[in-house]
Structure formats: C-alpha cells, structure tokens
Amino acid sequence: MKLERKHGWLLLAVAVWNVIIWLTFAKNLSAAHASGEDHPTGYWVAHTVLIVVDLVIAVVLARLGWKFLKAGDAAGR
Known about the structure:
The chain is mainly α. Helix content is about 85%, strand content about 0%.
C-alpha cells in the first residue's frame, strides 16, 4: 500500500479528534473527583492512565501524519 498525503490528513484528523475527546474526558474526570464522587482509587488511576496513553497515541499519529504530508510534498516537487 502506498501512503499518500490523504493518509497524512486522516492521521492528523484522528490525532486531533483523540486530543479533543480525551482532554474533555480528563476535564470531566477531574470535575467528578473534585465533587467527591465515591470511586475506588483504582478507578481514578486506571482512567488517568487511559488518558495519558491515548494522548501519547495521538502524538504518535500526528507525527506520522505530518511525516506523510511532508513526504507527499517532497514527492510533488
């Protein structure tokens, strides 16, 4: 499969979507914790780890997307 600029745009779009979703979730999780919701510590830790891991995945996808866009620019010259 040949990777093209359109794949780079798709990866960047997915990365942005992940950042928006997971930062919103982090805000809501923080608000729930601040309001005193009663959950075991493992609940807070597990969700925090999910947020961090998925934000790292978003960074990886964004870097790959950017790489494909730059490669497409170089091929078009």
